Structure formats: structure tokens, C-alpha cells
């Protein structure tokens, strides 16, 4: 039994789960960094690659350069919330890594959400254009 067959079996029940599926270890992040395509804007950098699954997995990286742990965790929560609210608008089967830039420090949810949506539009992974209006 391969790693991906185990993962696919686990994710078959994804629709019944309430939590977001995230990238967990450095191998998964490294795979997205190496094989993925990246676009950036003022606040975020987004890497995306296909994952051969029927769901998206999200990884969030916030460097110590951004700020202390309180600041980093706040930015992580803002990114996760923007993803959660738009998860049904995204094309499935992608591994997504979002890296917060130093400029994201101190900005509100609306700035981070707009930056997130801008990057999904650049990557062409958003299903509907109504999310931008």
C-alpha cells in the first residue's frame, strides 16, 4: 500500500469533516516549493501544485522576520479564515502554500483576504469571478 493510496482513503471522508486539511511536514511543503508555480503580491506569496487528490490542502508559512509569535499566529489565522470562506470557490486537487511577507504585519483581515483572492485569480484556481466584485 503506497502513501498516496492511504492518503486518498483518508480524504474520501473529507466532505463529512469540519476541519481544513493542511500540509503537515517539510517534505510536503518542499514538494510544493520545488514543483509548484508561484505568484506574489504585496502581502503574500502563493505556491500551487497538483496533489492527485480530490481535495485541496493548505500550508501556511510565516517567518520570524514578520514578528513575534502573537503577530505570526494572527496572520496565520487571517490567511486560514480567508481560505475557509472561499474553499468552495476553489478548484479541487491542489496543494497550496501561502507565505506571509513582512508587509502583511499589522494589516487587517480585508487586506489579507484581498491579497489571497488576488493570488487565486492569478493562479486561475477560483471557480467564480463574483468573489472579486
Highlighted features:
single chain, 133 residues, alpha+beta, Ribosomal Protein S5, domain 2, 4-stranded mixed beta sheet, 4 helices
Structure, explained:
With 133 residues, this protein is α+β, with helices and mostly antiparallel strands. The chain has one domain: Ribosomal Protein S5, domain 2 (2-Layer Sandwich), CATH 3.30.230. The protein contains four helices and four strands, in the order H-H-E-E-E-H-E-H. The radius of gyration is 15 Å and the shape is globular. The N and C termini lie far apart (46 Å).
How are the secondary structure elements laid out?
Blueprint: H1 3-11, H2 26-35, E1 37-40, E2 44-50, E3 57-62, H3 69-85, E4 94-100, H4 109-123
Parallel strand pairs: 3-4
Antiparallel strand pairs: 1-2, 2-4
Quick overview:
The chain is of the alpha+beta class and 133 residues long.
Shape category = globular
Q: Do you know the CATH topology?
A: Ribosomal Protein S5, domain 2
Total number of domains = 1
The total of beta strands comes to 4
SS summary, helix count? 4
User: What fraction, in percent, of the residue positions are helical?
Assistant: 25-40%
Alpha carbon gyration radius: 15 Å
Low-confidence stretches: none
Amino- and carboxy-terminal Cα gap? 46 Å
Estimate the strand proportion. 15-25%
What is the CATH class? Alpha Beta
Do you know the CATH architecture?
Answer: 2-Layer Sandwich
Strand order of the largest sheet: 1-2-4-3
How would a crystallographer describe the biggest sheet? 4 strands, mixed
Mean of pLDDT: 87
Structural class category: alpha+beta
Strand/helix succession: HHEEEHEH
Amino acid at each position: 500500500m503506497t502513501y498516496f493510496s492511504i492518503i486518498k482513503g483518508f480524504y474520501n471522508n473529507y466532505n463529512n469533516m469540519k476541519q481544513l486539511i493542511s500540509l503537515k511536514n517539510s517534505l510536503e511543503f518542499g514538494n510544493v516549493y520545488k514543483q509548484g508555480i508561484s505568484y506574489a503580491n504585496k502581502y503574500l506569496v502563493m505556491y500551487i501544485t497538483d496533489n492527485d487528490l480530490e481535495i485541496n490542502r493548505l500550508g501556511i508559512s510565516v517567518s520570524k522576520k514578520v514578528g513575534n509569535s502573537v503577530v505570526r499566529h494572527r496572520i496565520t489565522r487571517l490567511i486560514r479564515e480567508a481560505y475557509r470562506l472561499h474553499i468552495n470557490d476553489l478548484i479541487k486537487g491542489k496543494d497550496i502554500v501561502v507565505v506571509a511577507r513582512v508587509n502583511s504585519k499589522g494589516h487587517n483581515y480585508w487586506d489579507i483576504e484581498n491579497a489571497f483572492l488576488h493570488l487565486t485569480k492569478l493562479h486561475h484556481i477560483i471557480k467564480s469571478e463574483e468573489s472579486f466584485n
